[in-house]
Each structure stands twice: as C-alpha cells, then as structure tokens.
Design goal:
The chain is built from 19 helices and nine strands. With 421 residues, the chain is an alpha/beta fold.
Length: 421
C-alpha cells in the first residue's frame, strides 16, 4: 500500500523542520550561572547588549545554590558564575574551581576600582590569591520612615545614634511608639538583629574592630561587642518605643514592619532595616512620597556602611570569558539597567558611570555606598563572613535571646556565644 500525498507531505515537513532546527541552533558561547534575583530580566538585557558588541551568544542559567552546583558538577558547561557571598568565592578558589582574578583582570584595574575591603574578603588566606571580581552591592545601614509621620515629628535630622535614641525617648508614649522592629523570620529569626549589631560595631568602633570581630579575633564578651549590644538595647528597650513591645519583636514576621509603617492607624514611624525593606512596602506606595530612608546616624564614622553583594568568578580563561567579565565589571556596564525607572542596580565599581541612573531611591543608596567605598568604610555583612555555624546560627540565636531577656543577661549571652567560637 503506497503512501498518501498527505503522509508524504507530513514526512517532508518534519524532515525539513528538523534540518533547519539543527542548522539554526547555535549553542551559547558563554554560559553564566548564578542565583535567581530581582531584575534578572534587566541583567539579561545587558547581556544581550554585550553579546551584540562582542559578536557572541551569552546565556544566563539560574540555580538555587550555585556554589553547591559547581562543587558537585565540576564537568559543567559554565564559563562564569555569579556568587552571592564572598566566603563562597574563596571556597571555590581554594578547591581549584574559580580561577585567580589576575588571569582575566589586571591588578591595577582591581585596585583602582574596588575598595580594599572587598578585595580582601575574596582573597584566600591559604594561597593569597584573589578569586573574585565584584559585581554589585546593596546597603544595610538604613532607617526607613513614613514620610507623613516623619514630617509631623518635625523631620528630625540626627547627627548621632545617641541623638536618635534621645529623640525616641522624648517622643514615644504608651499610645505612640515610634519604631516598627519585628524580626521573626522562621528558622532564620535573628538575622535582622545581627544586622543591627554589625551596624553598631562598625559605626561606633570603626573598621579595625569590625574586621577583628568578623575574623573572630575579638570575642563577643569583649568590651566593644558587649557595649554594641547594649547600644541596641538603648533604643529597643525604651519604654513604649517599639510597636507591640520588645517581646513581640521575635514573634511577628519582619515583613509586617513596612505595612505597619504606612498604616495611618498607628504612630509607628521608623524601621531599622537594610535595602531588603524596599521589597515589602505596599505596591501602591511610592518612594519619596509615602516613604523614605536616612542612613543610620553616627558621630564617629559618618560614612560607614554595612552591606551585601555578589561577585563574579571566572571558571575558564578563554578569550570570550575574559572579554565578558571585563565588560561586566567595567565603569560603563549597566547603562540600560540604570536607565530603568525602577532600577536597583548598584555597581561595586566605585568609579562606575551613574549618568543613566534615574530611580531616586537607587540614586540615594548609590551615593551612600559610593562614599563608603571610596573611604574604605564599606564592610560586608559580618555574619556572612564568619564560620557559618556562628554567623548563621549562634549569632542569630544570641541576638534573639538578648531581645527577649534584655540587658540583664548580657554576660551570659555573650559568654554562651563565645563558647561556639
């Protein structure tokens, strides 16, 4: 029995489709792996621009845990990876997975465009090799506020932390708490209070003490760390200063803060939070109109800033990989992304061009970050730099315990924390 015309046509169609698919398919020249993150679509647009400039195809593949993937799959197809913590960069470098940065960037370029602290924390103490090219950073040391309530309080400008504490004492009452400070975050409860401790140590005692602390050369029972915990207590334990009271803080989800902040039915005006707060304000609220922020005030270290960020690593040293990394960390990278009205991209390159930046919130954050980087007063989130059993476990628990028990048990709390070192 012969084939029908319809069958013959179908066979020809399928064969033709397969042939053209094979001919038309072109695998990516460069594959970048990294986490899924907000505004990944804007980053992808930037990769398309670089693709066109270099005449190559670049693809980004998101992973839930890029560091673990690289360790478990060393015969992968990735050329570059975006690593969300510097500890992971050093780990991958010492395992021989990440290449030393001097194989794709000049040392002079690194030293001229990135702060010494950022260089230090992606440099292995084992072989003294730097394995990371910094991509972007975000600030932690911020105090967010409801614009209307803030204006009703007289739009105070604080020159020091003590001024802010005194203002809180003078203007809080039983029915008028000024602060929203909930920190509950499931199994991770305590990380926000850890941010407060990092802020306080850096702003009160400076970079040398901060660096000794995250490197665990300075114990938690040392005067500087203990007194920094007590500094936090000066604010959060003021009678009637915190919405719901200090015991509520560890039991109510931190995302509540930003809804409560803009709630006209309470007096909650301030929240001590990092950049992450911007993700949780109501969608219909507008930065600069409904809410805003100021940098955590400090008399001693005015431009200090704690923050987070992510780092590029090279996984091979071919010409295309080198060219792409150089584009990603250049002073000109990100013009399209920066030009978006909601852009939240802040380059870690302290000389990067800001001409295209239009988002008022990101302009304000970038200026603060830039000032801290130039003076080498930017410090990475210490809990992310410590051994993970301390920074992501013991320290969280200690801060949660301090908030619940107050300053009366400070010695027991710091001694217990030291026992985990």
């Amino acid at each position: 029995m012969g084939l029908t015309k319809n069958t013959i046509f179908l066979i020809i169609f399928l064969v033709t489709t397969i042939i053209f698919s094979v001919i038309g398919y072109k695998p990516a020249d460069i594959v970048i792996g990294g986490p899924n993150f907000p505004q990944l679509d804007y980053f992808s647009e930037e990769l398309d621009i670089i693709s066109e400039e270099l005449g190559i195809k670049i693809q980004y593949e998101p992973f839930s845990d890029i560091e673990t993937y690289l360790i478990d799959n060393q015969n992968n197809n990735l050329d570059i990876a975006l690593i969300p913590n510097p500890q992971g960069v050093v780990n991958l470098g010492q395992r021989g997975i990440a290449l030393p940065v001097n194989q794709y960037l000049d040392n002079d370029f690194i030293e001229d465009n990135f702060s010494q602290h950022l260089i230090n924390i992606t440099t292995s103490k084992v072989d003294n090799q730097n394995y990371g090219a910094w991509f972007r950073v975000l600030p932690n040391s911020l105090v967010w506020y409801d614009s209307t309530k803030y204006e009703n309080l007289g739009s105070p400008v604080f020159q020091s932390y003590d001024e802010m504490v005194q203002f809180t004492k003078n203007n809080s009452s039983k029915d008028n708490p000024l602060w929203c400070l909930d920190i509950e975050s499931g199994a991770s409860t305590g990380w926000i209070a850890t941010n407060w401790l990092e802020d306080t140590i850096l702003h009160k005692y400076g970079t040398a003490v901060y660096d000794d602390w995250f490197q665990q050369k300075k114990s938690s029972s040392s005067d500087e760390v203990t007194l920094s915990m007590l500094e936090i207590g000066k604010l959060i334990f003021i009678e009637d200063a915190v919405y719901g009271g200090h015991k509520r803080m560890v039991r109510k989800e931190f995302r509540n803060n930003y809804r409560n902040l803009l709630n006209e039915d309470n007096s909650c005006t301030f929240s001590w939070s990092g950049h992450f707060a911007s993700y949780y304000f109501p969608d219909d609220a507008q930065f600069g109109i409904d809410y805003n922020f100021f940098k955590l005030p400090s008399a001693e270290n005015k431009n200090a800033m704690v923050g987070i960020g992510d780092v590029l690593i090279g996984l091979n040293s071919n010409e295309e990989t080198i060219s792409v990394i150089q584009k990603l960390v250049s002073v000109d990278f990100g013009k399209s992304w920066l030009g978006k009205s909601d852009s939240q991209y802040i380059s870690a390159n302290m000389n990067s061009s800001l001409e295209s930046l239009t988002n008022p919130m990101t302009i304000k954050e970038t200026n603060l970050i830039r000032a801290s980087l130039i003076q080498d007063l930017f410090r990475y989130d210490a809990s992310e730099l410590m051994e993970r059993r301390i920074g992501s476990d013991s320290l969280w628990y200690a801060m949660m315990k301090y908030i619940e028990l107050q300053s009366l048990y400070i010695e027991e709390i710091t001694e217990e924390l030291d026992s985990s070192y």
